[in-house]
Amino acid sequence: MQSTNVRVAVSTHQELKRLAAELGATVGDTVAIAVRCLRQDRMGADLRADLSEAETTWLDADLG
């Protein structure tokens, strides 16, 4: 796996190390888990949002 460096505050790195230890994972794996959770959380927020007028019109269209 290729990797790169990401600059974070010292306190953030300490929190990542603590979470990684709790999970029994590496810091890199913990970051990957956090990114996936954030992506899923944003997707959930998008799905909970009210439909636009165009979306409602499309869903209510007569297909017959």
Distance between the termini: 52 Å
Question: What can be said about the biggest beta sheet?
Answer: none
Tertiary shape: elongated
The overall average pLDDT, rounded, is: 95
Helix content: 55-70%
Unreliable runs: none
Give the tally of β-strands.
0
Q: What sequence of helices (H) and strands (E) makes up the elements? A: HHH
Total domains: 1
Jot down its keywords:
mainly alpha, single chain, 3 helices, 64 residues
Describe the overall structure:
This protein is mainly α. It has one domain (10-59). The chain has helices at 10-23, 27-48, 53-59. Helix 1 crosses helix 2 (27-48).
Write a brief caption for the model.
With 64 residues, the protein is mainly α.
What is the topology?
Layout: H1 10-23, H2 27-48, H3 53-59
